[in-house]
């Protein structure tokens, strides 16, 4: 057992810290620090800065721009990025569709999509969930029927994050309605969102934004070349996609930054209110435990095996994120009633309620916390 | 940073596990050992000494093994797994730690022939009586106080704490709810030897020794939590109600999952704290110990309570083992500072740093 980072890892961290705090444009990091929404342009610019330095997609195969980093180095990369208020690479591109294409796509699909996916030349949306297929994703109904060298797609996706920005959408579609198991008739299809018949409709959320959308497909003709891997094998690729992202799943870096900022916002109250100080101390201890656990999981996954313990991180990490935004909301108190600058409240109080409300989603998306409990019970405890 | 044990450390764990399982394979072993005085198995104590476990943290010159907090943690964890009642943390880690640091002879402890007990105050005062030091006052509970050959005493001397040893003192023994033994120890002009300079403030020395003992207790709790969860998992699989195994009820399976989350969070913090003790400075070690003790207390209470609940009525019986795990976890939670104590300490310091950074 070793407490300290190896000199190489310490140097690696220092280098990244330097890069993130000096090379990523100030206006982007300030927007994150102010907890304001980033524009699409800012997210793309940030990803391009990382890509130019060759560190946008370290989790990809090296031949497609990935890095031969250890899991611990990937962990450090992610946490340093969050600590410096650098937006992580667009997750749909970097963590979701990219690795799937790299692993299962044909050479032609790889060459066509991977470079543009890496530098955000394409903004990807994730079209998995449907109104009647949430946690039970395999119940999805959007159909793709082969017609010559095209698929004709009909159906509806929902909860599609940032579909308003999306150039392309990667979808799970039903290609064999008669398959014996519902998982067996699903394919992984890439769809250009400018194709006629694709409509996007925003959904307003309780945080005041409309990050998510409904996406409708009406007789959308998609070239059969846009299929990833084999027809009817989509469920396998989707499981790969959902199980593959470990770095940063606990969101430690961002939570740590927010908790530290919250101390500044609390000011004198930290000394005057022992219950508040106790709240901080407890959250700090929870954060420590989760951070250490994520380092442990990273270290233990160096043999490349899937780590069911990452469910612990999703579960504990999302609950902690929620608890910290709740603390900030409590700190803001009445001052946090409105995000409108007209109210004259301190700037830090404005995003308090929206982000508290927004973060309620952290335990729902990415496999809800109930789904994570199911994984722990089944895979780890054997129940 | 890495959390893996070395081959040597794993060999130590296997050896200790092998030895303990000879007596404590089932809860009957603990029941038997705690039925009569001194509340543990003297034979097991001697065998632990033969294996070198009782001298583990002492320098080699002092007859010890020169091992560190990580190895100590491994042993404590194994003891926790089987609820071994031998006073390893109290006698070796806490008392032995204080004595070794003061340069006192600890060979008797390592050999298993001298059993020390820690009299942690407050309530004891030291004064000069002619050319010797004497103690007055009374402390309870002193774990294993009646059986102890030597008392390591924290006493107030001229306004600050100082350390003394004595073999005297009046001891009244009683049982604790987890099956252990403790005593009320009374001094009345009792002659004692100063350990180190009795006019110097020993707070730092004492706090550091207590920190090492806290982390060892946290490891012991970790072992107990791990076993309690294993037993609960097995019970959920084996026990049938309403025509199916309890594990088929999602609510129960999910609660077991949450116990697992609690366990893993505790494991990370406790392992880390022993690394900080091994590798950090004393102030860092003391703080890390509070963090580990708080985490172990929170996870231990959660796991202990849920283990009983998910077992149903049988969880409450002395006959069945799981309740003993909950009892021990509850006891450990209250030794050397409970949740509130450590949370209050951490809260008082929370404004003094921006973040806690475990990666160094
Ligand atoms: C802000 C936000 C962004 C999202 N972005 C995207 C996106 O970009 N692309 C995309 O495809 N999807 C996206 N999602 C969808 C997300 O993945 C789903 O919301 C999620 O899978 C849960 O599905 P559901 O909402 O239908 O809830 P349901 O599946 O109906 O679940 C309702 C509740 O029941 C619980 N539950 C369900 N089944 C079980 C079970 N078997 N056992 C125990 N409890 C159960 C759930 O945990 C939840 O608490 C997003 C969601 C949100 C909120």
Explain what the structure shows.
- The complex is a heterodimer of chains A (383) and B (360).
- Chain A is an alpha+beta fold.
- Chain A has 13 helices and 8 strands.
- A 4-stranded mixed β-sheet of chain A has the order 1-4-5-8.
- In chain A, β6 and β7 form a beta hairpin.
- The longest helix of chain A has 27 residues, at 274-300.
- Chain A is globular, with a radius of gyration of 21 Å.
- Chain B has 360 residues and is of the alpha+beta class.
- Chain B is 53% helix and 17% strand.
- Chain B is built from 11 helices and 9 strands.
- In chain B, strands 1, 2, 3, 4, 5, 6 and 7 form a 7-stranded mixed β-sheet that branches. In chain B, strands 8-9 form a two-stranded antiparallel sheet.
- In chain B, β6 and β7 form a beta hairpin.
- The longest helix of chain B has 36 residues, at 203-238.
- In chain B, 54% of the residues are buried.
- The model of chain B has no long low-confidence stretch (mean pLDDT 96).
- Chains A and B meet through α8, α10, α11 and α13 of A and α7, α8, α9 and α11 of B.
- Bound molecules: flavin-adenine dinucleotide.
- Flavin-adenine dinucleotide binds at residues 126-129, 134-135, 159-161, 212, 361, 364-365, 368, 370-371 of chain A.
Task: Please give a handful of descriptors for the protein shown.
heterodimer, A: about 375 residues, alpha+beta, 4-stranded mixed beta sheet, 4-stranded antiparallel beta sheet, 13 helices, globular, B: about 350 residues, 7-stranded mixed beta sheet, two-stranded antiparallel ribbon, 11 helices, 9 strands, about 55% helix, binds flavin-adenine dinucleotide
């Amino acid at each position: 057992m070793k407490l300290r980072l190896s000199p190489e890892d310490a140097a690696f961290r220092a280098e990244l810290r330097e890069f993130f705090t000096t090379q990523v444009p100030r206006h982007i990091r300030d927007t994150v620090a102010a907890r304001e929404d980033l524009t699409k342009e800012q997210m793309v610019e940030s990803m391009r800065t990382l890509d130019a330095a060759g560190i946008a997609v370290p989790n990809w195969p090296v031949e497609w721009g990935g890095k031969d980093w250890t899991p611990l180095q990937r962990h450090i990369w992610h946490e340093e990025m969050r600590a410096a208020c650098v937006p992580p690479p667009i997750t749909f591109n970097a963590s979701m569709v990219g690795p799937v294409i790299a692993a299962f796509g044909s050479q032609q699909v790889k060459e066509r999509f991977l470079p543009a996916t890496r530098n955000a030349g394409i903004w990807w949306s994730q079209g998995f969930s449907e109104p009647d297929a949430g946690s039970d994703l395999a119940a999805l109904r959007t159909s793709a029927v082969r017609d010559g060298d095209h698929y004709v797609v009909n159906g509806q996706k929902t909860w599609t994050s940032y579909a308003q920005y999306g150039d392309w959408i990667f979808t799970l579609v039903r290609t064999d309605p008669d398959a014996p198991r519902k998982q067996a008739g699903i394919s992984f299809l890439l769809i250009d969102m400018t194709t006629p018949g694709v409509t996007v409709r925003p959904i307003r959320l309780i945080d005041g934004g409309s990050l998510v959308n409904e996406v409708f497909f009406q007789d959308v003709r998609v070239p059969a070349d846009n299929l990833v891997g084999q027809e009817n094998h989509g469920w396998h690729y989707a499981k790969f996609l959902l199980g593959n992202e470990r770095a940063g799943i606990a969101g430690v870096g961002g939570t740590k930054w927010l908790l530290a900022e919250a101390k500044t916002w609390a000011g004198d109250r930290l000394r005057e209110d022992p219950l508040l100080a106790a709240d901080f101390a407890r959250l700090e201890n929870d954060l420590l435990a989760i951070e250490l656990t994520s380092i442990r999981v990273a270290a233990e996954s160096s043999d490349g095996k899937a780590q069911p313990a990452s469910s612990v991180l999703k579960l504990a990490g999302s609950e902690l994120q929620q608890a910290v935004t709740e603390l900030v909301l409590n700190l803001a108190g009445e001052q946090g009633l409105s995000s409108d600058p007209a109210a004259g409240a301190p700037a830090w109080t404005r995003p308090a309620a929206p982000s508290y409300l927004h973060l309620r989603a952290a335990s729902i998306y990415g496999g809800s916390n109930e789904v994570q409990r199911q994984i722990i019970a089944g895979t780890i405890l054997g129940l | 940073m890495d959390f893996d044990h070395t081959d040597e450390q794993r060999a130590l764990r296997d050896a200790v596990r092998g030895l303990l399982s000879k007596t404590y394979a089932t809860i009957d072993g603990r029941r038997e050992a705690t039925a009569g005085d001194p509340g543990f198995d003297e034979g097991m104590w001697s065998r632990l000494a033969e294996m070198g476990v009782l001298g583990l943290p002492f320098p080699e010159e002092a007859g010890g093994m020169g091992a560190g907090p990580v190895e100590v943690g491994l042993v404590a964890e194994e003891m926790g797994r089987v609820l071994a009642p031998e006073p390893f943390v109290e006698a070796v880690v806490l008392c032995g730690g204080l004595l070794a640091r003061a340069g006192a002879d600890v060979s008797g402890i390592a050999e298993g022939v001298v059993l020390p007990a820690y009299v942690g105050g407050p309530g004891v005062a030291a004064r000069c009586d002619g050319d010797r030091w004497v103690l007055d006052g009374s402390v309870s509970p002193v774990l294993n106080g009646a059986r102890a050959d030597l008392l390591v005493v924290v006493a107030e001397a001229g306004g600050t704490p100082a350390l003394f040893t004595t073999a005297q003192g009046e001891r009244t023994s009683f049982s604790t709810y987890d099956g252990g033994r403790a005593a009320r120890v009374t001094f009345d002009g009792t002659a004692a030897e100063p350990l180190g300079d009795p006019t110097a403030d020993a707070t730092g020395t004492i706090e550091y020794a207590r920190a090492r003992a806290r982390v060892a207790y946290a490891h012991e709790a970790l072992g107990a939590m791990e076993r309690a969860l294993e037993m609960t998992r097995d019970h959920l699989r084996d026990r049938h109600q309403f025509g199916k195994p309890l594990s088929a009820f999602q609510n129960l399976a999910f609660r077991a999952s949450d116990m697992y989350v609690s366990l893993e969070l505790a494991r990370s913090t406790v392992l880390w704290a022993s690394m900080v003790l091994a590798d950090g400075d004393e102030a860092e070690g003391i703080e890390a110990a509070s963090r580990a003790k708080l985490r172990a207390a929170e996870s231990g209470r959660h796991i202990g309570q849920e283990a009983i609940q998910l077992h149903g009525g049988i969880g409450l019986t002395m006959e069945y083992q799981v309740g003993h795990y909950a009892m021990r976890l509850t006891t450990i939670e209250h030794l050397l500072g409970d949740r509130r104590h450590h949370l209050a300490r951490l809260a008082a310091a929370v404004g003094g740093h921006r973040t806690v950074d475990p990666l160094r």
